[in-house]
Amino acid sequence: RNDLMTETNPNYEFAGERYTLKDLRDVPREHLRLTRALGQGAFGEVYEGLYKMRPGDAVEMPVAVKTLPELSTLQAENDFMLEALIMGKFNHPNIVHLIGVCFDKHPRYIVLELLSGGDLKTFLRESRPRNDRPSALNMKDLLMCCVDVAKGCKYLEENRFIHRDIAARNCLLTAKTPGRIVKIADFGMAREVYMSDYYRKGGKAMLPIKWMPPEAFLDGIFTTKTDVWSYGVLLWEVMSLGYMPYTGCANRNVMSLVVSGGRLEPPPNCPSLVYAIMTSCWHPEPPQRPDFATILEKLAGCLQDPETLATPLKPMIGLTESCSQDA
Ligand SMILES: C[C@@H](Oc1cc(-c2cccc(S(C)(=O)=O)c2)cnc1N)c1cc(F)ccc1N1NC=CN1
What does 121-156 look like in DSSP terms, one character per residue? Predict the structure, then answer.
């Protein structure tokens, strides 16, 4: 544990305080049982598991375990540790809870609360109305998901933390059934699960271009208003029930489209009040974009508008190509 702290010694500043690894709860490896693989994460496999809180306990707590493979670079080790430090500092109902870490030896583990509803993008795609089954979701369900994510984003904004990768793929649900809560659950510029959403620009880090504002992909400028832009794209993902934004467009086409003022079209049946929030998040001038407190007020307005709530959900049938076809 200490050998990892020497070279780069990733101290972590959050809300004006400094933290290091010793602030994270140590989970004894022998109290952890990995049960099944959930999927490939950015670092290594992610497992579902059971954690015996106290040795004598009969009950075991379901957890998700991110693993770091033994053969990892020091950079990966530190990124992994930093992600644990980041998550360990947050304390909000709409942000995934870090239970602890096992960093005493390889493979290193990050132990998280298990959100058994799975990720938001998958949930939306599974919830699309089919002829044999009208959608199990209504407009209010969708808006409540958006409210949960906005509350998590507001907490990050208040703590001056820039997420850089707000997207449906990085949000999880406590359950698929009503009463579900959505949490922001990945802080590693996650290259989880949806590898294709990321774009390698100039060989540097993979970038989620379709969720980024111009000042970010042109000049590498990231502020809380970057997350506001991404949140607007997440709103579009939710209202389209999990479509890939700018469907069929290559990332470089999206960059030129967005720079020249092009924007995502409203998903079919998207209430105008909701589309208005999206477009306000996509203002070319970052300061002109709303903050998350304002976004929450606008969403509350949508939830009080009968016409908006009464809007039926319809899956995207014929998607209009929103980007120029030329290379
Ligand atoms: C790291 C991983 O964390 C979790 C995944 C699932 C989870 C993910 C998928 C399905 C189910 S389940 C048991 O409900 O079928 C639970 C449940 N809880 C977690 N804390 C994660 C966080 C995200 F924000 C997005 C995707 C993933 N992954 N990583 C690998 C697969 N998903």
Answer: HHHHHHTS-BTTB--S--HHHHHHHHHHHHHHHHHH
Range 175-203 average pLDDT: 70
What pTM was estimated for this model as a whole? 0.91
ipTM exceeding 0.95, yes/no: yes
**Chain centroid offset of residue 183 CA:** 8
Q: What is the pLDDT of residues 280-304, one digit of tens each?
A: 999 999 999 999 999 999 999 999 9
Q: Is 132 a catalytic residue?
A: no
Render 187-215 in DSSP notation, one character per residue.
-S----S-GGG-EESTTSSEE-GGG--HH
**Which atom of ligand 1 is found nearest the CA of 184?**
24
Average confidence (pLDDT) over 146-167: 95
**Ligand 1 atom closest to 114 (CA):** 18
Q: Which of 90, 115, 189 to mutate to test the pocket of ligand 1 (most atoms within 8 A of CB)?
A: 115
Q: What angle do CA 34, 40, 42 make, to 5 degrees?
A: 115
Q: Name the catalytic one among 119, 148, 165, 227.
A: 165
| C-alpha dist (Å) from residue 20 to 86, 183, 187, 267 | 10, 25, 17, 44
